[in-house]
Every structure is written in C-alpha cells, then in structure tokens.
Design goal:
This protein has helices at residues 6-27, 36-60. It starts with 5 loop residues before the first helix and ends in a 17-residue tail after the last helix. The chain has two helices and no strands.
C-alpha cells in the first residue's frame, strides 16, 4: 500500500472545501427551484472536477507501473 503524505491530504482537503464553497456560494446562493438545465450543469461541473482530480492522482502516482494492467484482474487470487 502506498503511504499518503501530509501534502496529499492537504491538497485533498483544500479540494473538498473549494468544491463545497463552489456548491454553496455560487450554485446555491439563494433558495430556488432548480431547473433541469441548471441541475445538469452542476452535475457536469462536479463530474469534470472529479475527473481532473483523478487524472492528477494518476499522474502523481506515476501512471501505470510495469506489470500493472489498466484492466481489472479476472481472478481473485
């Protein structure tokens, strides 16, 4: 298992706080009925943020290492 550094935890927590601030401070500043288009936009923004975070973790971990497969294992050994 990989050891997670303090810097990684700090970056993770900053990301969570930033996304929460974006959600509460920008998207849902005032109480209103959310229309489908607005809901889709919010979902798209958070999925994009998750994808960017995943790509960052992938590169931080060094990508695929020798002997690792990008596909899940077929047996449970």
């Amino acid at each position: 298992m990989t050891d997670v550094t303090d810097t990684a935890w700090i970056v993770f927590i900053i990301n969570i706080v930033a996304l929460l601030a974006l959600d509460l401070g920008v998207f849902n500043r005032k109480a209103h009925v959310i229309k489908p288009r607005e809901a889709l936009l919010q979902v798209a923004v958070f999925i994009a943020a998750a994808a960017v975070f995943n790509i960052g973790v992938y590169h931080w971990m060094g990508g695929l290492r020798p002997g690792w497969s990008s596909l899940p294992a077929t047996s449970w050994n």
